[in-house]
Structure prediction request, 489 residues.
Amino acid sequence: MKRATAVNCFDLVVVGSGPGGQKAAICAAKLGKRVAIVERQKELVGGVCLHTGTIPSKTMREAILHLTGFRQREVYGEQYRSRKSITMDDLRHKLQHVSRREWDVIQDQFDRNGVETIVGEASFADTHTVEVLTPEGPVHLAADKVLLAPGTKPARPKHIPFDGRTVFDSDEFLDLDRIPRSMIVVGGGVIGVEYGLMMATLGVRVTIIDGRDRLLDFCDREIVDSLVYNARSMGVTFRLGENVADVRRVGLNAAAVELESGKRLLGETVLFSVGRQGDTEFLNLEAAGLAPDTRGRIVVGEGFQTEVPHIYAVGDIVGFPALASASMEQGRQAVCHAFGVPARDMGEIPYGLFTVPEISSIGKSEQQLTADHAPYEVGVARFSEIARGQIAGDETGLLKILFHRETRQLLGVHAIGESATEIIHIGQAVMAFGGTLDYFRDTVFNYPTMAEAFKVAALDGLNKLAAYDVTAGCGWGDAELADVAALAV
Ligand SMILES: Cc1cc2nc3c(=O)[nH]c(=O)nc-3n(C[C@H](O)[C@H](O)[C@H](O)COP(=O)(O)OP(=O)(O)OC[C@H]3O[C@@H](n4cnc5c(N)ncnc54)[C@H](O)[C@@H]3O)c2cc1C
Ligand SMILES: NC(=O)c1ccc[n+]([C@@H]2O[C@H](COP(=O)([O-])OP(=O)(O)OC[C@H]3O[C@@H](n4cnc5c(N)ncnc54)[C@H](O)[C@@H]3O)[C@@H](O)[C@H]2O)c1
Prediction:
């Protein structure tokens, strides 16, 4: 790891080495700029994404699917398990290996591209100076431009008795000493649902509580319904439309959750995952003329520029969509804006939720299209009808394509099941280039693959359009024809 040089003048100083900061730093270095990236601790290079978020959670999910033999249950029955007893250490085993490898890759990229990594807590001394409290003392970095990518940390209300063992947040989840027999998840957002379903796959009795009436309301309803159906069949209980009033520890190995409705639930453990808070506490933003909002986030405008024009912010700190995937591209786009390089809008962002089974989407949901009064139709492929789906043991997955009834252009693609997060990009590419259903009808796909689902769904959609042709000229309006099409399915 390099030290800051005596001059300490940079074209760009980046705070935070998560996906947003990393890609910003590399992009600026490729433009020939002198770049420094500041990270609080050497071990944390890679950010939340590498150490407590995306990578560890997905590595753990993969370990659970592997060790439980989840993908083979369709063939060998519900009780099938690759390993009879599984411990947290088994689940963590691969995690350390993957994190270490990724850490090396990131550090190597910084070194190769001449990005100076400076270890310590960063804060603003003034609008153009970042002070870093390094282990050797404070260092001042003069910066032409500053890019903030400090990310977020779990929200931890003061009245919740976190102990990292019985009551814990999503960062602490990874350090559990044992797999509990039961877990109450407070907050059915993406984190709560992903970890909740991973634990249910291990046979843990899981209850998910959320204040909203519907889970994951940014996703297509049919897909979420299917997820909930799968979860219930694994024994998960949902308490929706219920707010948590209090959590208490009961003895050494249990906790009670009290709901505003008066209900009380008892569990061996409680995962408290009700959202995240911007990590801006130590940045001394006032010295730069900036102020965070109530959730510690920074407001940005076009090109991820803050109201102080030479300061940019990207990643979770700017709020929605708060994804590693989007953060990386935001970092690149911010640097292009800062140094006058043209960059195209990133377009529709896909969602990939690594639940069990996984779900993914791009574009509009049926609920959004209905609200917009858009003339759309749906083509569906069930994975039980796809040869690869059978091979993979996926009997419940599906892919649906939402398309414009007249132009046949894609409006949205939603999937649940095996490889959903991978195959969604096929729909994304076709949508981005303004493609129509006809592309899938006329194209030959590798066989047997999950991608074939696009062809099957497109043919299903086109068959529904044919039903409109049959009824053409009968004097009915669009609404009646839509009913006919639905009956014809
Ligand atoms: C459990 C979990 C699972 C997730 N799964 C997914 C997923 O599957 N797919 C996906 O796309 N996204 C996922 N996310 C979201 C993803 O991790 C975040 O969107 C992403 O990490 C945000 O990147 P970032 O660039 O904002 O920085 P972060 O990754 O948040 O990192 C910020 C870094 O800045 C450092 N820092 C902060 N302040 C300072 C300071 N003052 N001085 C020095 N350093 C500082 C921190 O130490 C940290 O290392 C998940 C998140 C969680 C919590
Ligand atoms: N696969 C992925 O892409 C992935 C995976 C994990 C996390 N993430 C990112 O991490 C971010 C944070 O996730 P999160 O799940 O912590 O936050 P979130 O904001 O998505 O969900 C929090 C949930 O808690 C509920 N809630 C809040 N207070 C409550 C109370 N008192 N009682 C009951 N319910 C309550 C809310 O209704 C909400 O549904 C997400 O926005 C997401 O972008 C992404």
Summary: The chain has three domains: 7-152+277-338, 167-274, 357-488. Confidence is low (pLDDT under 50) at residues 1-7.
